[in-house]
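Quick review question:
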């Protein structure tokens, strides 16, 4: 059966349905500086937790990390070898390692231990890779996956010793369980349309924030391609955003090209902040956003 719509299109359409009002009086030159887990970054535009970028550009994963370091951005990383992670951290990029929900929890715990020893600022898990499209447990590059319980998640949080973040949260229910497990952050994401007709992250963001109650940072992933998109996420309550596929084509031109686009998006964000009277990221106001009804 041919589907006429998908999650990526719905996400783009929702972004484009959000309009902003301008606020010029008493406005100031804005700052895009962000503090996360006690560290300061120049931008809330983060890289996304991608994997296997050697298929896109030589040493793509390391190039991607260098770009984040050049832009003063938080860097996220997905699957990869231990040596590759060590090379990524060695670029100076402050890195968050996201681990798959491996069926064998001993594998998860080993990966957590290595990431912490390698110098990652935080670790986490993308829970949405537990199942395949046929209702069975997923298998990623020959590695068996399995859905995790709240109790298992609690064990991972306690084992980490650094902030533990769950990626793939798209409901207040999962957000509540993450809070119960002691997670220090969640990423609102449908993993680039892993599920057809998934709710756009921004549509469910406010409901998730009502559960987290500003106790932990909430990040947004999927479909972000401009500083205006970033602004809309932050205005609605996100701490920061992850950008992945939008940056991937630039990897072939090197870290500087990727960093330049991150810097451009940050400047675009600052432009919207200035024109809506927002002087700093912690001064974002959701009332500036209006949903198009015409």
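Suggested answer, residue by residue:
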């Amino acid at each position: 059966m041919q589907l006429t719509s998908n999650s990526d299109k719905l996400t783009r359409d929702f972004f484009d349905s959000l309009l902003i009002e301008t606020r010029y009086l008493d406005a100031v030159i804005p700052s895009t500086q962000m503090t996360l887990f006690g560290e300061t970054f120049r931008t809330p535009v983060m890289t996304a937790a991608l994997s296997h970028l050697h298929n896109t550009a030589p040493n793509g994963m390391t190039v991607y990390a260098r770009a984040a370091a050049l832009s003063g951005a938080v860097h996220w990383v997905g699957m990869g070898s231990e040596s590759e992670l060590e090379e990524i951290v060695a670029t100076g990029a402050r890195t968050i390692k996201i681990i798959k929900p491996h069926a064998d929890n001993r594998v998860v715990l080993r990966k957590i231990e290595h990431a912490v020893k390698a110098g990652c600022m935080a670790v986490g898990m993308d829970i949405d890779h537990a199942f395949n499209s046929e209702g069975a447990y997923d298998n990623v590059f020959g590695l068996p996956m399995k859905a995790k319980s709240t109790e298992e998640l609690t064990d991972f949080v306690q084992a980490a010793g650094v902030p533990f973040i769950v990626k793939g949260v798209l409901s207040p229910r999962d957000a509540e369980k993450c809070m119960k497990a002691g997670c220090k952050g969640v990423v609102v994401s449908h993993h680039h349309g892993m599920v057809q007709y998934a709710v756009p992250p921004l549509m469910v963001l406010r409901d998730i924030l009502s559960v987290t109650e500003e106790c932990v940072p909430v990040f947004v992933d999927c479909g972000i391609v401009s500083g205006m998109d970033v602004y809309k996420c932050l205005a609605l309550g996100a701490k920061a955003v992850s950008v992945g596929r939008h940056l991937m084509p630039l990897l072939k031109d090197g870290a500087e090209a990727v960093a330049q686009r991150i810097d451009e998006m940050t400047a675009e964000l600052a432009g919207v902040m200035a024109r809506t009277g927002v002087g700093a990221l912690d001064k974002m106001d959701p009332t500036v956003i209006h949903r198009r009804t015409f």
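Why it works: The mean pLDDT is 96. The longest strand covers residues 164-169.
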